[in-house]
UniProtKB/TrEMBL annotation:
Name used for this protein in its record: Uncharacterized protein
Organism: Acidisarcina polymorpha
Domain of life the protein comes from: Bacteria
Length: 304
């Protein structure tokens, strides 16, 4: 199974229309090149392991809504975001592609699917999934819970602020969105991710001290020659970045002694260092090594 040959050098970039439909206060944004993923069983395994259960439910709803996801969708993005006055986060999906909107809507009309309106936007139910879908234009669609879709339309229509107004996230995206798979996380999302990665090492006092100083993070994956994974965590100063590098190396040493064979091999292919106020984690492996790594809890902790 050749992962690299099956994955062309493509990028999961989001258009301005897509970005404008994502609310400003996001915790995490994950983007994948969906068409490239369809070309490889190993790539699909990767995508399935990247997407948490909630996102898999949204993708399944997309497939059962009357669209041919395999042919219509080029890129998929999922954003978890906060809404003022609401506890927790909401999640919205953005699909990009070439959608035959008139035919799709005619099919829904034939099936007597009733829409609701959010201003001038028509929002349709996605089968029996309990989710909704709307088209911003023939190349961009929004889907998710009814509340999440409304929040996305509020951002798209200028009622509330969108991702385009989130300068730190927009800047972070520019560093990774040329990859086939990438993600950006805010401060809270980064704290959660790093806690999962560190495992038992997160119990030490140093982590409690520095975790509040995470500013955000981003990661990307490249498949052009084997598999490369790059994680960058932004901190306010070199001391914080250096302290986290030491903690991660300590956690890696622990995993080398207690982890699975796949995790031990992955750690051997991983470098952790600090560069000024950035913490950098780089991983590279052959295709076969990466397929084994997909099964490990360590990989799950990083990409979720």
């Amino acid at each position: 199974m050749s992962f690299a040959l099956a994955m062309p050098a493509v990028a999961a970039q989001l258009s301005t229309d897509a970005r404008s439909a994502i609310p400003k206060d996001i915790q995490q944004l994950i983007a994948v090149d969906y068409r490239a993923m369809q070309n490889s069983s190993a790539a699909m395994d990767l995508k399935n392991r990247i997407l948490p259960p909630e996102l898999k439910q949204m993708e399944e709803a997309l497939k059962t809504s009357g669209l041919n996801a395999n042919h219509d969708v080029d890129e998929l993005a999922f954003a978890s975001f906060r809404v003022s006055g609401v506890d927790g986060t909401r999640m919205v999906g953005i699909a990009q592609g070439e959608f035959d909107v008139p035919t799709i809507k005619a099919n829904w009309l034939k099936k007597k699917v009733k829409y609701t309106k959010v201003r001038t936007n028509r929002v349709y139910p996605m089968g029996t999934s309990g989710m909704s879908v709307t088209f911003v234009n023939p190349t961009t669609m929004i889907f998710g819970s009814e509340e999440a879709v409304k929040s996305a339309l509020d951002a798209r229509d200028g009622v509330t602020s969108s991702l385009l107004n989130n300068n730190s996230m927009m800047e972070s995206m520019q560093a990774v969105d040329t990859a086939a798979v990438w993600s950006v996380l805010d401060q809270e999302g980064t704290q959660f991710m790093m806690h999962s990665v560190l495992g038992q090492a997160s119990q030490v006092t140093d982590y409690d001290t520095v975790k509040k100083r995470f500013l955000g993070s981003r990661y990307m994956m490249d498949f052009s020659n084997g598999v490369k994974f790059n994680l960058n965590v932004q901190t306010p100063d070199a001391f914080t970045a250096g302290t986290m590098a030491s903690l991660l190396n300590a956690a890696a040493l622990y995993k080398k002694m207690s982890g699975t064979d796949a995790e031990k091999q992955a750690i051997g292919n991983t470098t952790v260092k600090s560069d000024a106020d950035n913490l950098e984690v780089n991983f590279s492996a052959s295709d076969s090594q990466f397929v084994s790594l997909l099964q490990s809890p360590l990989f799950q902790a990083v990409v979720h």
